[in-house]
Amino acid sequence: MSSGNKNEAVACCTSIVGLLASLFFGKSNTNDQSTELQPQQPVVVQQPPATTWQKPPQHQYDQQLPSQPHYDQQVPVKPNHPVSVPHSPPSQQHHVDDAALIQEAESLRDQAHKMANDRAKFYDASQAAWNSGNKADAKEQSDKAKQYGAKVDQLNAQASALFFKAKNAGRGLGEIDLHGQFVREAVRLTDERILQCRQQANGQERVTDLVVIVGKGLHSVGGVAKIKPAIVELMQKHGISATMDTPNAGCITVHLE
């Protein structure tokens, strides 16, 4: 090939290469300008707001659960009354407390209480006189204390009899009410009644169970029953079995056979 032809061929190749380069790189630059990347922004993912559970007001629960009781209110409860069981046959149930007798008995108890306080004062005076060497005065004060003591016993005995009459009128032999009695009086009366039940004459209905109404101790000092344990001790002394709170609370059923 001649040099002219070579130059011409080189020029042609150069032109072709330049054209191709122009076409290729020129298009690439255009694309770079049109699709220029923007600075990358951090992708923020929107999280749903945290749900904080709060207890609805009480009234909302009440509306949602109408069948449920309001726990912040008192729910009425029926009192658990003991089942009333007659202590003796119906034909013997004619007892009604005699209000006049009870009032008189309470008055006698009050008088006895006052005289018992005076008796204590006389005993204190007697002791003081004795300690001071005045034996004559000590004896005089002691005698007064004894006189007051006898009167106290008399008044209490009268009150006991009235309480017993008022509380036991119309009751059968198989039932005894000890309300209003002092402990020693209650023990004596129960002991006497047990003896009566065991000495029933022939032809009379035998009493196999004696119901002793001792009360619940609501009127005792400190609300602690005193008659009930004394009667239990009496049953142990006699070797008699008994059932507590039968047929009602505050009763003792003594099994005589």
Quick recap:
This is Smr domain-containing protein. This protein is an alpha+beta fold and about 260 residues long.
Feature tags:
Smr_dom, alpha+beta, DUF1771, 6 helices, single chain, 4-stranded mixed sheet, Smr_domain_protein, Smr domain-containing protein, Ribosomal Protein S8, Chain: A, domain 1, 7% strand, 257 residues
Describe the structure.
It holds the Pfam family DUF1771. The chain is α+β, with helices and mostly antiparallel strands. Among the domains are: 73 residues; 86 residues, Ribosomal Protein S8, Chain: A, domain 1 (2-Layer Sandwich), CATH 3.30.1370. Helices cover 53% and strands 7% of the residues. It has six helices and four strands, in the order ααααβαβαββ. A hairpin with a 6-residue loop joins strand 3 and strand 4. Helix 3 packs antiparallel against helix 4 and helix 5 packs parallel to helix 6. 16% of the residues are buried.
Number of strands: 4
Shape from CA axes? flat
Query: Radius of gyration, Cα only, in angstroms?
Result: 54 Å
Tally the helices. Answer: 6
Topology diagram in text:
Layout (H helix, E strand, L loop, with lengths): L2 H32 L23 H7 L34 H34 L2 H34 L6 E3 L5 H16 L10 E5 L13 H12 L2 E4 L6 E5 L2
Parallel strand pairs: 1-2
Antiparallel strand pairs: 2-4, 3-4
Helix pairs in contact: 3-4, 5-6
Organism: Batrachochytrium dendrobatidis (strain JAM81 / FGSC 10211)
Protein name: Smr domain-containing protein
InterPro entries: DUF1771 (IPR013899), Smr_dom (IPR002625), Smr_dom_sf (IPR036063), Smr_domain_protein (IPR053020)
